């Protein structure tokens, strides 16, 4: 791999920081999401209800443990760390006149600690997080006013941290809005609302906000690199029947309709035709087209957990489970304990698919395996299944880079340290190289333990991928 390849790990503020009211932080959309499980969906409550446990209130307590955690990253040899800033720490209510200095100071400390070890921060401005007040008062991204609040927040942090951060990502997975609108956009669709109209209009506001922030980032420092971040895994046809092929290909287009705007600077004809079919009347203001055109991203980052299968469902055939959304079950693949299908070759196909479409550098900012790990009495965790999963994916990634010549900036393994699952709110769905002693209800010491995969990844980084086999 290139000597500058950014090996690292990823987290999101709301899933790891905890300290949900410390340092004047405001409530965020994730602070009113209860815990869930494989069988029970997480609930969104109206404010905080004492009858429930809210796992993001504690996260994995990165807020207290950040020094120790960054030291662990450094021990593994991380070149970069994908993290996010909690908007509600900086502007507790979203529209406050001045930013919250205590919140800013927390990230000053995090960035200077990263710098101490030469770890490059890759910062997402909104990773499934926004001040709850913006939802209550303005209806979240339904409302165009939220664009200005987001731009002000972004400007505050991009200026404050301009000496520390080169890589910015505007939003995490705007395209998840189609499946779980609360996560990327804080949207709860009311019964009397037209779902499609609401989500695509909200997505438009986010796209305008994203494009404005790209321009701002380039003005603040021409060396800034700004990316979009998309949820994507390639869709396979169920058979070679042309109807199945068509369905798979069109599903790919539908997943990419939103990042297309961030990369190309305009809505594709396919996406506009989709809106027409869905009877969506996009309200664009004068100047929006120009903003989108001038706010193209520098790189495309994405999360890859699985490929999907599309086509006519036959009697007895089942749907796979998956990250937000899933297709039919693929009989050639195995699944993890949460039913997500494991497909390393799909990562190589996905990398090629995205690069052929976008022709700009890519960045894998999420990939990993959620599993139930066992902490033994001697403090060890033998996660050979995780090593095997990652090893296979990284081998395919290497082929995409070295054989197929896909330009790839880096790879950040999702949940490099155990954190709260976004989908289920569980703690026992563990992704990390580092185990955190916390259970699904928040009990535990929050002590950190190195898993076997910790030492394995350290060697991968040390050898710049040569140890993969
Ligand atoms: C990604 C999200 O899509 O999936 C993360 O960006 C999330 O925030 C990850 O944690 C894995 O999903 P889950 O439900 O296993 O946490």
Provide structural commentary:
The protein is α/β, with parallel strands linked by helices and 469 residues long. Helices cover 38% and strands 13% of the residues. The protein is built from 14 helices and 14 strands. The strands form four sheets. An eight-stranded parallel barrel has the order 1-2-3-4-5-7-11-12, surrounded by four helices. A two-stranded parallel ribbon has the order 6-8. A hairpin with a 5-residue loop joins strand 9 (334-335) and strand 10. Helix 2 runs parallel beside helix 4 (101-116) and helix 8 packs across helix 11. The two termini are 14 Å apart. It binds 6-O-phosphono-beta-D-glucopyranose (BG6). Residues 12, 128, 172-173, 231, 303, 323, 366, 370, 414, 421-424, 429 line the site of 6-O-phosphono-beta-D-glucopyranose. The site of 6-O-phosphono-beta-D-glucopyranose (BG6) has 15 residues, from loops.
């Amino acid at each position: 791999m290139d000597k500058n390849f950014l090996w690292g790990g990823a987290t999101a503020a709301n899933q790891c920081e905890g300290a949900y009211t410390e340092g004047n932080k405001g409530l965020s959309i994730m602070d009113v999401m209860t815990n869930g499980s494989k069988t029970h969906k997480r609930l969104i409550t109206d404010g905080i209800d004492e009858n429930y446990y809210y796992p993001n209130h504690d996260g994995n307590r990165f807020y207290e443990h950040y020094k120790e955690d960054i030291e662990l990253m450094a021990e593994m040899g991380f070149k970069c760390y994908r993290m996010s800033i909690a908007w509600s720490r900086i502007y507790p209510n979203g529209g406050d006149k001045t930013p919250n200095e205590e919140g800013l100071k927390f990230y000053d400390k995090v960035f200077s600690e990263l710098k101490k070890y030469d770890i490059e921060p890759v910062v997402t401005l909104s990773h499934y997080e926004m001040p709850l007040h913006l939802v209550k008062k303005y209806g979240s991204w339904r409302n165009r006013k939220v664009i200005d609040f987001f731009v002000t927040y972004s400007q505050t942090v991009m200026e404050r941290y301009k000496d520390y951060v080169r890589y910015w990502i505007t939003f995490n997975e705007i395209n998840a809005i189609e499946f779980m609108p609360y996560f990327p956009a804080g949207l709860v669709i009311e019964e009397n609302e037209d779902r499609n109209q609401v989500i695509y209009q909200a997505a438009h506001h986010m796209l305008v906000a994203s494009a404005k922030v790209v321009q701002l980032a380039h003005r603040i420092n021409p060396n800034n690199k700004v990316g979009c971040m998309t949820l994507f895994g390639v869709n396979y046809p169920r058979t070679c029947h042309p109807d199945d092929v068509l369905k798979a290909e069109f599903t790919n287009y539908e997943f990419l309709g939103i990042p297309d705007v961030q990369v190309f600077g305009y809505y594709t004809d396919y996406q506009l035709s989709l809106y027409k079919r869905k009877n969506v009347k996009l309200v664009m203001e004068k100047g929006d087209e120009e903003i989108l055109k001038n706010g193209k991203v520098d790189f495309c980052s994405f999360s890859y957990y699985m490929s999907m299968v599309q086509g006519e469902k036959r009697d007895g055939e089942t749907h796979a489970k998956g990250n937000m959304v899933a297709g039919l079950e693929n009989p050639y693949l195995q699944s993890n304990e949460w039913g997500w299908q494991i497909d390393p070759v799909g990562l190589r196909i996905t990398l090629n698919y995205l690069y052929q479409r976008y022709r700009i550098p890519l960045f894998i900012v999420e990939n990993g395996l959620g599993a139930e790990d066992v902490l033994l009495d001697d403090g060890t965790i033998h996660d050979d299944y995780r090593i095997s999963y990652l090893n296979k994916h990284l081998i395919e990634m290497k082929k995409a880079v070295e054989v197929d010549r896909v330009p790839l900036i880096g790879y950040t393994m999702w949940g490099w340290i155990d954190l709260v699952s976004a989908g289920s709110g569980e703690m026992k769905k563990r992704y990390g190289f580092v185990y955190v002693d916390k259970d699904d209800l928040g009990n535990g010491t929050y002590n950190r333990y190195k898993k076997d995969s910790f030492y394995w990844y350290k060697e991968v980084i040390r050898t710049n991928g040569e140890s993969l086999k």
